[in-house]
Amino acid sequence: ILGNYFTDKYSSKIEQELITKDGLILRPDRVFFSFYETVVLDYKTGQRNDALYLPKMKKYKNALSDLNYTNIKLMLYYLELNELVEL
Question: What is the pTM of this model?
Answer without folding.
Answer: 0.90
